Amino acid sequence: MFKTQKFKVLLQVTSLAFVLGVVLNLFLYNSSVSSNIRKTLSRDGSGSLSRLISDGDDAQRRFPKALIIGFSKCGTTALRAFISLHPDIVSPLEEVRFFTLNYTKGMEWYRLKMPPSTKSQITIEKTPFYIMDREALERIREFNSTIRLIISVRDPIARLQSQYAHTFRNVLDPDDRPSFKAWCQGNANSDHVVRFVDYASHISAVYDLFHKSQVLVLSEEALEMDPLSVMKEAEAFLGLRASFTKYDFVFNQEKGFYCFNMSSPNYPNIINSVKLSESGCIGGGKGREHPEVDEDFFQELVKAIRPHNEHLFSLIGKRFDWDNFKES
Ligand SMILES: Nc1ncnc2c1ncn2[C@@H]1O[C@H](COP(=O)(O)OS(=O)(=O)O)[C@@H](OP(=O)(O)O)[C@H]1O
User: Fold this and answer.
1) Alpha-carbon distance 233 to 231, whole Å?
2) Is 162 marked as binding a ligand?
3) Backbone dihedral region of 2: left (phi > 0), alpha (psi from -120 to 50 degrees) or beta?
4) CB atoms < 10 A from the CB of 248, how many?
5) Residue 65 is among the residues annotated as catalytic for this protein
6) Distance CA 258, CA 303 (A)
7) Hey, which of 180, 286, 288 would you mutate to test ligand 1's pocket, going by the most ligand atoms within 8 Å of its Cβ?
């Protein structure tokens, strides 16, 4: 009898020790997961810790559910940066170029390029060259046929000027670089130039592969003039809760475009995931001076490009009132 009681006590003590051990282990495991997340975040700075912790510890690197696929020189950097203000968006700082240059590195390589996110957040990646590459678009469809795609377009002549300014950004002496006209005609022959700004042909390829409802086409001009409206459009398109406000953006006279308002409640969401100047503007050589275009060549470009613009407007069912194409 005495022996049985002793055995029971022993059994109870052992069970208690076992339960305590399990609880302690779970606690240690959880704190190590949290500290791993913290370390990951502080190392790559690619997400807001407070956002993740407040949403529980389900943070992990997840594949993008939305992509900004083009067009280069159409405000895609500002677009990605502004969207990242949203508390339910995370996005890698750099262009990953997975579906073009890095495809052979494999899906796991791609996933590990993404910042940690919670289940309720959406990861967005921007690589503006995807849209110019049919094979990349096919790979995206194979990756996720229901993915959301965001495309920004711009006045085609302004885009060409922006590309020229970017190409020769390090050639300071004008004698050392071709004129804008020579660059358009030589470096890239006229057909090539028209193809570069023929948004319709590239967007048609997107519509061949994805349902139109998965694709949002925005304009760089709208983003420049009224980022809040563009962000609200993107927010609705991505099915996000309404979080953008007029306090998120401030117009910077010196830069000539909207920058981040560092006092807005959403501002902490982009710290470390966007490269900013001290004034809260997007750096990286945006807003370079555009080259002059000689009048005859300008008219030639307008004539060659206008039909492609009309094709674009009928394809996407919306018009852009581009300065260089206004009928006088
Ligand atoms: N708010 C804000 N901040 C910074 N930049 C802005 C903004 N809105 C539009 N833009 C215009 O974006 C143009 C650069 O486009 P991208 O970012 O797509 O260029 S890139 O392809 O990634 O190099 C760049 O064009 P350029 O002015 O020709 O340099 C910017 O004018």
Assistant:
1) 5
2) yes
3) alpha
4) 22
5) no
6) 32
7) 286
Q: What is the pLDDT of residues 42-93, one digit of tens each?
A: 333 344 444 554 455 589 999 999 999 999 999 999 999 999 999 999 999 9
| pLDDT tens sequence across 259-285 | 999 999 999 999 878 988 888 999 767
pTM for the structure as a whole: 0.84
Poorest-pLDDT segment among 39-43, 239-243, 299-303 = 39-43
Domain ranges of the chain: 54-325
Separation CA 233–CA 228 (nearest Å)? 9
Domain 54-325: CATH superfamily, name plus number: P-loop containing nucleotide triphosphate hydrolases (3.40.50.300)
Is residue 217 within 8 Å of 249, Cβ to Cβ? Answer: no
CA 287 – ligand 1 centroid, Å: 6
Q: What is the pLDDT of residue 20?
A: 56
Across the strands, what pairs with 150?
Answer: 68, 216
